[in-house]
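Data card: per-record layout.
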Amino acid sequence: MFKFDVGFIGGGNMGSAIAEVLINSKAVEAQKVLVCDQDQSKLNLFSQKNCGTTNEIDDVVQNCRVAFVAVKPQSFDSLKEKFGKNVKCEAIISIMAGKKLGYVKEVVNNNGCAIIRIMPNLACRYGEGVTLAQLTDVSGELKEYVKDLLQKLGVLIEIEEKDFNFCSSVSGCGPAFFFEYFRYFYKQCIEYGLSEQDARNMVLQTACGSAKLAMNSTESFEKLISNVCSKGGSTIEGVKVIETSDMEQIVKNTLWASKKRNDELEQV
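The structure for this 268-residue chain is written out next.
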């Protein structure tokens, strides 16, 4: 029997986002969450939510059923010796970019503890994220428990470890790429003469509504595009510009540049 259901080694942006969603969705009670960090100001924020706090990693890996490792990869290297040989939690969930399962297993010394690698994106803070997960090291009731937690963050996609670097360039880096596209729309609205607020609202709601249209349809993207276009209309003229601007190659280059950098970081 564990004193806490979920623990976090690291209470920074991603750790706090995941904890907040799990608590707000009632997947776990606040008093059943334990957070470890060296920054007391971060711990104070968790204390205000009735979460347990500590400065010791051992407290998390010995007293929590599931522990999220939510520190930067370079920081994890300096924490290796602090894990010791007393890991008692059933599963450790790593959200560290560029750190393979084998590396985490070596550090944790396993002890029968399942090691899970995930990569959520920032939208998980609102329960609208995409979480990539390799769950091959976990099974049975524990796997279902972990999946239930992760699904509170948004869409859960199970992948093999070899696919992390490409898939994370889509879901992890993707928000920035979409924001860049939004920015171009926004700039044109401003140049036309719209107010900043109207321009922002128009661009974001159009993007949000379009995503919902696609998510509530089984039609291909090609068919969804044709549904908006009409022969001789204004939409098709804009689509022609996109098609002749080699947008597909730009997107391809963007994703593969990010994937290449993910590959490089994995070697560091």
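Known properties of this structure: The radius of gyration is 22 Å. The chain has a mean pLDDT of 93.

See the next section for split statistics.
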